[in-house]
Amino acid sequence: MEFFDSATYSIQFQVNSEWRKVRIRAADTLLDALREGLGLTGSKSGCDNGDCGTCTILVNGLPIKSCIMLAVEADGQQITTIEGLTNSPMLQAFAEKQAFQCGYCTPGFIVNCHGLLNILPDADDETIRIWLESNICRCTSYEEIREAVKSVFLAHSTDGVP
Question: How far, in Å, CA of 152 to CA of 102, rounded?
Fold first, then answer.
């Protein structure tokens, strides 16, 4: 007798503007469905308990730690991963400001900060600082990360006007 449910379920959600179907087990996390089911490996597995932020994605525009969200909860939702932000100003700013060292945490930071820009486009320095606390960088490049994020907010608030 098996003590686990080996049944799988089909769910679908919009990932990076494309509707996708994936088969999951009831206990699969959204991170597992994205990485293993769809091959979207930009979101990383770090702590698997929602502390580090390496797995951060956007669900309906809100930053979510995908390691603690069940995949079944994402059925019908709109999801954005780091792969969907390849031309975003936030990603470009991280590269320009060298806001990474090993790079493992970088996708989660970029997605989280992109979400902040969409939710609170007029965020002040303190709000940005608090928002960044939800992600952990073990290589301690926080100053460069803060500068990258602030540069995007500054450019956004001035709309390119010098």
Answer: 22
